[in-house]
């Protein structure tokens, strides 16, 4: 009678040690080809993609719930220029659907024209925010900027139905400046720095001191923004000075606000919120000749932008310049409805 083979703890450990030793030997030998030109085996590609899909589905549960009005025009426009400069050379675009470099990468970056069909909004948000290991897909430069991540998700939703002409218009802007340093700025802010659709802040006419301090804060990553940190990456301080000088010379933000407005936002802007120890916004951001040039003017800015920035201050996610700590304290004392009210006042909304 043949003896029955039994699996004992010692035999199991010996087998595992043998498998591990064999794996180390194979890795040490160098016979595994890691060259991108060889591609993946089909089973390897399937296994990696399967694991990635499961991971995204699980971790997407921790993403903030997208707003019901996710696919707004301002969000779509806000992400278009960034997509062209940082994503299109791998994933393609309506103007260039088969980028040459991507075809020689392993794994090959997928086209994103049907991303909204393959992934739910929270799954896309997780991919945009955290990237994907072993693929070259980076994480967002400012993980805490939910607003920027959602803007990119909205853009990806719109991409499948976006004709080349529209993509060109929102990704490159209406004009191409002769100065290459200003080209990246003009994609989103235009040459005059006057946002007309709420997608971007009005920067034309702000003081040169404020603009330069802000650009430097983006450049050294003390003011988090995936859009702006990428836009100024690699620029010299002289380049930043030229940008600030150009936009400070433009006509953009308004000097005055309506003093006959009786809304709650007007009361907060003009008289403050004494019960919350909040000073009048105009005492720092008004048109007075004594205004600190390091403070921005607010009149004429988009309400959604202003409210978003105040909430970033309140959450401690906006900083960078030497006065950020002041606004963090003030915004922290403002209720959400007060933030919306004062933002609509400065935007001139009824």
Structural class by sheet pairing and helices? mainly alpha
CATH superfamily of the largest domain, by name, is Cytochrome c-like domain
Secondary-structure element series: HHHHHHHHHHHHHHHHH
Describe the largest sheet: none
User: What number is the mean pLDDT?
Assistant: 91
* CATH level-3 fold name of the largest domain: Cytochrome Bc1 Complex, Chain D, domain 2
Which second-level CATH architecture of the largest domain applies?
Orthogonal Bundle
Report the strand count. 0
Helix content: 40-55%
Using the CA coordinates, give the radius of gyration: 26 Å
What count of domains describes the coordinates?
3
Indicate the low-confidence ranges by residue numbers: none
Tally of separate helices: 17
Quote the distance from N terminus to C terminus.
Answer: 95 Å
User: What is the beta-strand fraction?
Assistant: under 5%
CATH level-1 class of the largest domain: Mainly Alpha
* Cα shape: elongated
